[in-house]
Amino acid sequence: MIYQKQLEIRYETDILVIGGGAAGVAAAVAAARMGRDVLLVEAQGCFGGVGTSGMVPSFAAFFDGANLLAAGIGAEIRGHVSRHVPITQAWTPIQAEELKREYDRIVTLSGVNFLFFTTVADVVVSGAHVEYAVLTSRTGLYAVKANVYIDCTGDGEFTALAGGEYSCGDEHGDTMPPTVCSLWAGVNAEDYHRTNIPARLEEAIEDGVFTYEDRHLTGISFREDGLGGGNIGHVFGTDPLDQRSVTNAMVWGRKSMLEYQKFYRNYVGGCENIRLVSTSGMLGVRESRRVTCDYTLCVQDFIDRADFDDEIGRYCYAVDIHVMNTSREEMARFEAEYRQNLRYGKGESYGIPYRSLIPVSFDNVLVAGRCMGTDRQMEASIRVMPGCYITGQAAGTAAALAVADRGEVRRVSPLALQSALVEAGAYMRKELRPAGR
User: Quick one: which of 312, 246, 248 has its CA closest to 71?
Assistant: First the structure.
């Protein structure tokens, strides 16, 4: 079928940010605070992505044990949510409604123009230059023209629709299994934490409680209000880029929570009265497209605690590739990699180069968050929310600088970018800071 339609150019803006998760919010706010006109579009009815709509129950580390790495916008957001928990704590429970309101606050006050229930349908490209984004909503298709486009979709949807280069998954194209996150009530947290859950999980597996022998149980994170956020179970064999596969994953993920409710009630202390309150309406995808960028941040950079001349921040989370199947060998691989071999000590971190935010395919596009330019192992470290705040703020700041030079993101001076980030409160190694800062 050949389909043609003349589209209205509904918005013209300095910067279009596609995707309003942690990276997208940070990017939009950073650019708007530098005086740029910013349009931020989000597919859901709130900002935050998996941290809100996806009900992921906890923030990963903002702090490496010595330095606040997710400083700047990330720390500002964190300072308004879960205030009773020190920012130095490695895992912080999230109340999704509180986080939604904080995103609304910071985006609105920054002057960002934003739209919910809006997705990218197509991208019009001339050579290496993106001319228009075609968006869709309840009002139909329309076009947006920007100087700079920032792909914060997590899945690299904008870059893929534009015909940009990317990779996905392991050497076979297989990706980490996602999770349908959940919310639970009726748990005595003290008794829960006293239980040897791995041992009880093994008993339940032997008793045939579960359809799949999934030994990688992240568990429940208890909030101040007494509810517990569940990052429980994996939906194996899901293709995050196939709509039918994702649909089936949502159905099974919800159904599987009944098996976990049975497990907790019958095998885990303090859970005799546990009840499932709700499940997320968004699949918790851990891995999909990785956009091919000017530099691919790789696991050797993690091992080397790498430094870069064009560094825009640093991060420290372990390489966290969840089990790919139900074998004991795969569980052993995860335990060795995540808990021992690819984990940092106090004060250790790796640098993130600006080049890893610049897609090789375009001259006026940046990426941030989970879909940035990494190899598979580094994606498994940078993908968490504090990492997304760091790369999002850097992308938004770089985009604001690029607007003055016809949107060409490679012309942004790394020193000017570093200076602007430090001015905005972001963390930078002292030796990289411009003189006088």
Answer: 312
Distance separating alpha carbons of residues 373 and 375, to the nearest angstrom: 7
d(CA 361, CA 159): 9
Question: From residue 260, how far is each of 229, 256, 334 by CA, in Å?
Answer: 13, 7, 22
Decide: residue 209, CB within 10 A, 0-12 exposed, 13-18 middle, 19+ buried: middle
Give burial (CB, 10 Å; 0-12/13-18/19+) of 207: exposed
**CATH code assigned at 387:** 3.50.50.60
- Say if residue 14 is in the same domain as residue 156: yes
pLDDT at 434 over 60: no
The distance from CA 240 to its chain's CA centroid, rounded to whole angstroms, is 14
Tokens standing for residue 178: 């996602």
What is the C-alpha to C-alpha distance for residues 144 and 11, in angstroms, rounded to an integer? 5
Q: How confident is the model over 23-53, as pLDDT tens digits?
A: 999 999 999 999 999 999 999 999 999 999 9
Buried b (16+ CB within 10 A) or exposed e, 354-372: bbbbbbbbbbbbbbbbbbb
Q: How far apart are CA 52 and CA 42, in angstroms?
A: 13
How many angstroms separate the CA atoms of 348 and 65, rounded? 8
CA dist 122 to 128, 149, 437, Å? 16, 13, 43
Same domain, 210 and 81: no
In 3D, which of 409, 365, 424 has the Cα closest to residue 35? Answer: 424
Centroid of chain to Cα 95 = 17
Query: Which amino acid is present at 333?
Result: R
Q: By the 8 A CB rule, do 70 and 78 touch?
A: yes
The confidence band for 224, taking pLDDT boundaries of 50, 70 and 90, is confident
Q: How far is CA 401 from CA 49, 197, 407, in A?
A: 26, 51, 8
| Shared-domain flag, residues 265 and 399 | no
